[in-house]
Amino acid sequence: MNEIYKKLAICLESVRAKTKFVPKVALILGSGLGDYADGIQIEQTIDYTQIEGFPVSTVAGHKGRFVFGYVNETPVVIMQGRIHYYEGYAMSDVVLPTRLMGMLGAEKLILTNAAGGVNYDYKPGDFMLITDHIAVGVPNPLIGENLDELGVRFPDMSEVYSASMREMIKQEAAKLSIYLQEGVYVQLTGPAYETPAEIRMCRNWGGDAVGMSTACEAMAARHMGMEVCGISCITNLAAGMSAQQLDHKEVQETADRVAEQFKKLITAVVGRIC
Questions:
Q1: b/e string for 19-58 if b means 16 or more Cβ within 10 A?
Q2: Which of 76, 148, 187, 271 could, after both became Cys, cross-link 215 (CB 3.0–4.6 A)?
């Protein structure tokens, strides 16, 4: 058995020893949204440290646990604290939680993140519906021996972010009077914020927002047949677009400021998915 799949199987067995809950929707919460899971109908929580072989997030503000429960009547699993490539983990570990949630039963994945605005039309506090991504700046999570148990060797990526889910998100945002930007997300490694030259490169590539997560998780999810959507919270203008220096405190403060709107949108979206 492939070593990566063997590790996944061990994690799955460890989780299944603690809960039989079967989610239909998986959510990965970015900066500022971590406490969303505290407000749902919680059935069970499992700390990452309780799962054999599971990588543990080291980012401040990320709790590091799975929350199983219901949003309205939809069974969900929520990842409170994601794993980032810049923490030093192998890419297979970064996407392990995504794959695990799919193996637990989740058919759809909602990705959220805090991102820097690359597009000059964006401002801090905007939400961007991800239409596509550019992930050439990080290792592809499918490199190496294919996990045949999950998907094919050469998966199609022409529609990573589901068109039908995007349309539904736009409808729910309109009902809530939430303005949505739409654009391309660029994933780079971090943990340093990008240089002004790197931001110009992202813009020339066609990117509208930049961050340190999400695209790799989306690819892993699509490989195993999950339907994916993603929403970025634009927490700052990227390097070189203003005179302000970038720091994580600003990212957290902006994310916190718009968190209530973000939570309302996520709740509405989950309610429509199943």
A1: eebebebbbbbbbbbbebbeebeeeebbebeebeebbebe
A2: 187
User: Measured between alpha carbons, how far is 82 from 43 in angstroms, rounded to an integer?
Assistant: 20
For this structure, is 133 an active site residue?
no
Q: Is 236 an annotated catalytic residue?
A: yes
Residue in 2, 107, 248, 253 annotated catalytic: 248
Q: Can 128 be counted among the known catalytic residues?
A: no
- Number of folded domains that form the chain: 1
Residue with tokens 């039989």: 20
Q: Is 217 designated active site?
A: no
Per-residue pLDDT tens over the stretch 84-117: 999 999 999 999 999 999 999 999 999 999 999 9
Can you give the residue range of the structural domain that contains 13? 3-273
Q: What is the pLDDT of residue 34?
A: 76
Question: Is 157 one of the annotated active-site residues of the chain?
Answer: no
Catalytic position from the list 114, 135, 220, 268: 114
CATH code assigned at 60: 3.40.50.1580
